[in-house]
Design brief:
The protein is built from three helices and 31 strands. By secondary structure, the chain is mainly beta. It has a 20-stranded parallel beta sheet that branches. An eleven-stranded parallel beta sheet has the order 4-7-9-11-14-17-20-23-26-29-31. Helix 1 links the parallel strand 1 and strand 2. It holds the Pfam family Beta_helix.
């Protein structure tokens, strides 16, 4: 049911709500702003937003609330470079759907159980250094059909969160990364069917371990396509146990992007101190530096990563393992990949899966292209129109499960070179 909440004096009132009812609160018909509507909402309600530009930061602290725009491209939460976050999800079971978030100094959508992250104090290289704060997970979330563009850190950021799904979304202009999953163990998170382009990094998973599935996404036209890594700035070291399957990771050397803090450039997939990850049936093409890199830039080894059934083409180096320090790793292996070049040269013959757990990881080097200067995140290209949430204006609230169904990695195919091309600005050459 739709709830008429406007009182005679112009302020909201609760008198019209039937006991126990789940209602739709419309913006601006029932409340003048999204934040005002969210403050009126109770668990199970739908906040439905009409087309318009909303200059606000929306914080959701009511569990099992749905925030949905009537039109994905015409409902715009614009931070005007004055707000840290477009939407902050700080309660379980919340769905954010079918809207655009842009021009925030930090994040488009932040989903977190961390009070430090909610307070908006990023660390030195992006992310959040939570100090002595204990890990407190937000459990259960959904971000779907969201466009997050031109934000100063991350487009969609799940940090210290579990049991969620990021799907059917588009991110660009993230000065750190388009989609980020960090500090969760076990994650129980699925990232699927998204387009992430024109970011410093398309997808980043830091200290994100266990039941984490990144599947059937398009990471193309960034500086770096995808990374999975361990970082002392966050808790729950080391990163372990992600499944990266069925993604198109292509042409990640786009100059018209924000510069990445660590200077990454021309890399499809980067593993930095991550372990026990599976890279299965991805199409990794046209990355000028390397298709897939394994390294350890700190003191955390990269162990037992499996690279199986992927297609590599037209990369500077298809697979390269390189370590600048004594920290390397063991048990990393390859099998059944379509590729032309590796560094060191004999990886296919010498590191076939399954590799003995104690087999040392070899290291080599190659000439890496120098990254060009970037552009401000505010100048990244405007997205093309994106698909709409079906029946956005007439569907009821979305029931977010306590734990999402996890995909069967064996059923995820190698993607075509045109995966989700209709939603992308940048096309692989």
């Amino acid at each position: 049911m739709t709830l008429g909440l406007a009182g005679c004096g112009g302020g909201p009132e609760q008198g019209h709500r039937p006991a126990g009812a789940h209602v739709t609160i419309r913006v601006p018909a029932d409340a003048p702003t999204i934040s005002a509507a969210v403050s009126l909402a109770q668990s199970g309600d739908l906040v439905l937003v009409a087309p318009g530009v909303y200059h606000e930061s929306v914080k959701i602290t009511t569990a099992h609330l749905t925030l949905r725009g009537e039109s994905r491209d015409k409902v715009v939460i614009d931070g005007q470079l004055q707000q840290a976050n477009g939407v902050v999800v700080a309660a379980p079971g919340v769905a954010v759907e079918n809207l655009t978030v842009e021009n925030n100094t930090q994040n488009g959508v932040l989903v977190t159980g961390s009070a430090t992250a909610i307070a908006g104090a990023p660390g030195k290289s992006g992310g959040y250094d939570t100090g002595d704060e204990p890990v407190d997970f937000l459990k259960s979330f959904l971000v779907s059909y969201v466009t997050a563009t031109r934000n100063g850190l991350y487009g969609i950021y799940a940090f210290s969160a579990q049991n969620g799904v990021i799907e059917h979304s588009y991110t660009s202009g993230g000065a750190d990364s388009g989609i980020y999953v960090g500090q969760c163990k076990p994650c129980h998170i699925v990232v699927r069917d998204n387009v992430s382009e024109l970011n410093a990094v398309g997808y980043e998973g830091t200290n994100a371990s266990g039941d984490l599935y990144v599947v059937a996404n398009r990471f193309s036209g960034n500086r770096v396509g995808l990374t999975t890594d361990s970082d002392h700035q966050e808790k729950l070291l080391p990163q372990r146990g992600a499944v990266i399957a069925g993604n198109l990771i292509a042409a990640n050397q786009q100059a018209s992007t924000p510069e990445q803090a660590d200077g990454g450039w021309g890399i499809g997939i980067g593993v930095d101190g991550g372990s026990s990850n599976q890279f299965v049936r991805n199409r990794v093409t046209g990355n000028s530096n390397a298709g897939l890199v394994i390294t350890a830039s700190a003191d955390i080894p990269a162990d037992d990563n499996q690279i199986i059934g992927n297609t590599f083409a037209a990369n500077g180096v298809d697979i390269g393992w390189t370590f600048r320090t004594a920290t390397r790793g063991r048990g990393n292996c390859l099998r059944d990949n379509d590729l032309a070049t590796t560094v060191p040269a004999q990886l296919v013959a010498t590191t076939s899966c399954p590799a003995p757990a104690e087999s040392p990881t070899p290291s080599g080097s190659w000439v890496m292209p120098k990254p060009p200067g970037g552009i401000p995140f505010t100048e990244v290209a405007v997205p093309v129109l994106q698909p709409q949430f079906p029946d956005a204006a007439t569907s009821g609230a979305t029931a977010v499960p306590d734990v999402p169904a996890l995909p069967d990695a064996a059923s995820i195919p190698l993607p075509s070179a045109s995966l989700l091309a209709g939603s992308a600005v940048v096309q692989p050459s």
